[in-house]
Structure formats: C-alpha cells, structure tokens
Specification:
The chain has about 475 residues and is of the alpha/beta class. It has 16 helices and 16 strands. Helix 12 packs across helix 14 and helix 13 packs antiparallel against helix 15.
Length: about 475
C-alpha cells in the first residue's frame, strides 16, 4: 500500500469501503496503522498518496476498536478460559497463535494486575491498546476478554473501567485474617464479635441459624459445618466477604462505559489454604449479599509458586479440588480460577477432569520469561547482564511473592557457554529469580529489551506459541 512498509498479511481488513492494515516500516521496524478509503474521520496521521499513515496511539486504537468491533473485549461467561498476561506489551501475537488452535478455550489477551502495572510503569489503557494492536496484527476476530487483575480498592477499579476492561478480579486478601486458622476458641470468639456485622447485613445468631444443623447438597457429596468450622471460616473470611461486596457494589454503580462486566473473587494470595468449608462459607455469603461472580480463586493446598510447576502432594490436591469443584457447581455454577497458573503442567489434566471445564487458568510472568529465553538465544551478552542484575535484586524483589528459589543454586552468568543460556529458563532457581525481578530489569534495561524483542519478534512469537500450547492442550481433554 505504501512504499517502505511491510504489511502484516493477517491484519488486512476491508470493511464499509475502507481498508485497514498494520505495517512495519523497513527503516526502523516501527509499526504503523495504514488506513485507505473515503472515510478517514477520527484517525490522526500523515497522508501519503491515498493512504493515511497513523502512529499506534491510544486515540487511533480507540477509533479502530469502534470501526472493527471484534477488537473490543467482551464478557466470556462460563466458557473454559485462559488469561495471557503481557508485562511487556509485545506478547499478544504469540498468544493468539497458540489460542487459535484451541477453539473451546476463550482467551483473555489484556490482563494485568495493579502490582504489575506499578512495576512496569504501564497504565490500564496501555495494556488494552497493546492487546488491540497485537490482535489486529494477527487478524483475531473471535471473542476475547480483558482482566483487571488483583484489584484491592475502588480506585483500582475506576482506572480499569475507564479503559473498558470486562473482567474485574477483586482481591480482598488484605482482609483475610489468617490467624483465625489456628487461634484459640476464645480468640476466635473475639474475632467473631469484631466482624463488621452491619456491612455484612447480618448477625451472629442469624448466621448460625443458616448454617448449623443443616446438610447442604453438593450433588455428589454433602456439606455440613459444625460451630467451630463455621466460626473459624467467618473469623477468617468475614471481613474479606464484606470488602468484596463493597467492591462489587462500587463496580455495579460505576460500570465500564460501553460494555458489561464480570467479577472474579480471589483469596489465593494468603498464607493458609482455603478449606472446602471456608469456600462454602465465602460463596454462600457473597450470594446472600447479592454479589454475582463468574469465577472464584481459593487458596489451594500445596504451593503455587511463580514460574514453576505445582509443589505438593498430587493426590491431596486432587481430593481437595474435587470438593471445591462440587461447591462451585452447587452454588453457581461458576468457574474455579487458578492463579499463578503458569507452568503448573502436572495438574492441568486433573483440573480439566475435575472441573468439567468450569475453570479459568491465569498466567502472567511466564510470557516475560519466554521473552528472556528469546534474548538468551539471540544476544548472550545482554542476557548475562539481565541475569547479573536479577541476582543482585532477588532478595529485595522477592518480598511480595511466595517463592523459594535459592540464589546459591543459580549458575554464575559467565559459567555457562552461550548455547546453554536458554536452558536457564528451565532451571527452577534461575527461573524464579528472573521471574520476580522483572520490575528491576525493566527499570534498567526496558527500552533495550523492547527494542531487541521488536527486532526479533518472530523468534519471540514462536517461543510463546510453543509454550502456551503446553498450557492449553491439557485443558481440552
């Protein structure tokens, strides 16, 4: 269409007398939007012949989403789904290539947590726009979702709502009282008395009448709660339920413009597992308070550490997951959400089997690690610099993560041949060290890293495609 630009063939769209495509400028690899036709209103760019050459700005992304409605995210309901977090804003093409092969799995291509945005310096709007351009590049026209992840305050909700996100993952983890798990009966009673009963629209007596001396049918099993189990569940999660309800009502009163929304409730980032009885309490109370949600993330047994496989007893995990799945079917149905779900290859088949597809798998940092694998393959010197910085920052940056990597077990950057460096992304300790230090790496090397990945985008996309096939294929049975 325009000399000096190479068009991405899948991006070309002809609609209502206009032609749209994404192109890469030969001189500097910069990407642009090309628009040709009689109606160019709304787009900002420079005219070259009969083509308008537009920068990839937020304003142009917004106009393109209006012109091509399939580039707008939507609610995905109860379909099996997978979140594809993208800390760099470059991973969507690789995610799309993998997702194309699994029609029964609904992808969430724009997913970022408040914590990740704080560390990367990105905004919710940038996350949405980066996904938009990646989807356009790859010609994705099927439904897709967007996830405002780990929201802790109403203000967190507002910034994502302004960007048009469709799934809101409320994280009331700061309001979970982990001490209730092992507190003495007297301490539990004191915690019960101090619960925000007005916000819960409840009293202790009414709560006990709802639960005690009842057997709840869960289909393939029954649920009963004795007084101790009920009180510990309420003491542990009562404030979290109240906070989740407040967040839901704020969202319902201030919904994202132009789109509906769905809610996920997450209590996964806590020290102690969520027992089936506690899950039952949380879901029952949310339901009583009028909260509607599509997925819920308990804190499962075992360890879901960042970037590595599940750590724990698989038989115990299977037995507990079956109970959680029964509760989700009986009180919803809703999906069980698997947070820190990247690279948990040993449990994906179990999850698919026991949830009957009512599952949402959430991944994030694994795409960043594949970016580092690409760097290790194409520029060994740069990768060694990244690894050196990661080792220097690990003890500080690990503070907000549940990880167990031993820095002493990470090979020294100069101890390996160039050809062996990509393999560090498969070594437990090195992988976690690289995973949790992404903020520090981006602070130091962000522009250089993005430029390198842009120059080798097909290498990165191919690695992502292969990696995500391993995540998605077990979910389809």
């Amino acid at each position: 269409m325009v000399e000096g630009f190479e068009v991405y063939p899948r991006s070309k769209v002809e609609l209502d007398g206009a032609t749209y495509s994404l192109a890469r400028r030969s001189a500097d690899a910069r990407k642009v939007l090309l628009v040709q036709g009689s109606d160019l209103g709304g787009f900002a760019g420079q005219q070259q012949g009969d083509v308008l050459v537009c920068s990839l700005t937020a304003e142009n992304a917004a106009v393109l989403r209006e012109r091509l409605p399939w580039l707008r995210p939507r609610s995905l309901g109860l379909q099996t789904s997978a979140g594809c977090g993208d800390r760099l804003g470059l991973a969507t093409p690789g995610h799309v290539r993998a997702a194309r092969k699994y029609e029964t799995i609904a992808p969430i291509f724009a997913q970022q947590s408040v914590r990740e945005n704080a560390r990367t310096g990105r905004t919710p709007q940038q996350v949405m726009d980066d996904a938009t351009w990646g989807l356009f590049q790859e010609g994705w026209c099927e439904p897709w979702g967007s996830d405002a992840d780990h929201l802790k305050t109403p203000q967190d909700i507002d910034s994502f709502a302004a960007a048009g996100f469709t799934l809101y993952t409320v994280d009331p983890g700061d309001h979970v009282d982990g001490e209730a798990h092992t507190a003495s009966p007297a301490e539990v009673d004191a915690k019960m008395q101090a619960l925000p009963w007005d916000t819960l629209e409840d009293t202790l007596g009414d709560m006990e009448r709802r639960y005690l001396n009842h057997s709840f049918d869960l289909g393939d099993r029954a649920m009963t709660l004795d007084r101790e189990a009920l009180h510990r569940a309420a003491a542990k999660y009562g404030r979290a339920v109240a906070h989740a309800s407040r967040m839901y009502r704020h969202l319902a009163a201030n919904p994202p413009a132009g789109s509906g929304f769905e809610l996920e409730v997450s209590v996964d980032e806590t020290e102690t597992p969520t027992s089936p009885e506690e899950h039952f309490y949380v879901a029952s109370e949310l339901k009583r308070l009028g909260v509607e949600w599509v997925s819920l993330a308990p804190r499962y047994v075992g360890r879901f550490e960042k970037g590595v496989d599940y750590i724990g007893d698989l038989d115990e995990f299977k037995a507990e997951l079956a109970k959680h799945a029964a509760i989700a079917r009986a009180l919803g149905p809703y999906k069980l959400s698997i947070h820190s779900g990247s690279d948990k290859f040993s449990i994906y088949s179990l999850i698919a089997e026991l949830t009957d597809g009512l599952v949402h798998l959430k991944t994030a940092g694994t795409s960043y690690l594949e970016a580092l694998r690409a760097v290790a393959q194409v520029d060994a010197t740069f990768f060694r610099e990244i690894l050196t910085l990661a080792c220097q920052r690990y003890e500080i940056d690990r503070a907000t993560y549940h990880v167990s990597a031993d820095l002493a077990k990470v090979p020294a950057p100069d101890a390996l041949h160039d050809a062996d460096l990509p393999g560090l992304l498969d070594q437990f300790d090195a992988r976690q060290v690289l995973h949790v230090t992404f903020g520090s790496v981006l602070d130091r090397f962000g522009e250089r890293l993005l430029a390198m990945l842009a120059a080798h985008e097909q290498v990165y996309a191919a690695m992502l495609e292969t990696h995500f096939e391993r995540h998605l294929s077990p979910l389809v049975g």
